[in-house]
């Protein structure tokens, strides 16, 4: 995992979690895959919607 969460105790004031990036290249790659995957998913949805709308219009014309 490219990210490590470390619990830090500042009692009695508060507790927090620090985020430590161990492998920055791997983290960037995972974020890119996530963003690209979402983009492709939206593109597929829009393509299906466009195709289904055309099919409805063609069906109405025939």
Would you write up a description of this structure?
The protein is an alpha+beta fold and 62 residues long. It has one domain. Helix content is 61%, strand content 26%. The protein has 1 helix and 2 strands. It has one helix spanning 24-61, and strands at residues 3-10, 14-21. It has a two-stranded antiparallel ribbon with strand order 1-2. It is elongated, with a radius of gyration of 23 Å. 0% of the residues are buried. The model has no long low-confidence stretch (mean pLDDT 76).
Characteristics:
single chain, 62 residues, 1 helix, 2 strands
Q: Please give the largest β-sheet.
A: 2 strands, antiparallel
Overall outline: elongated
Helix content: 55-70%
How far do the termini sit from each other?
56 Å
Q: What's the order of the H and E elements? A: EEH
The computed structural class is alpha+beta
**Oligomeric form:** single chain
Order of neighbouring strands in the sheet with most strands? 1-2
Overall tally of domains: 1
């Amino acid at each position: 995992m490219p990210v490590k969460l470390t619990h830090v105790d500042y009692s009695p004031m508060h507790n927090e979690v620090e985020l430590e990036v161990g492998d920055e290249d791997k983290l960037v790659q995972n974020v890119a895959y996530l963003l690209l995957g979402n983009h492709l998913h939206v593109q597929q949805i829009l393509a299906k919607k466009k195709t289904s709308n055309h099919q409805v219009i063609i069906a109405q014309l025939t």
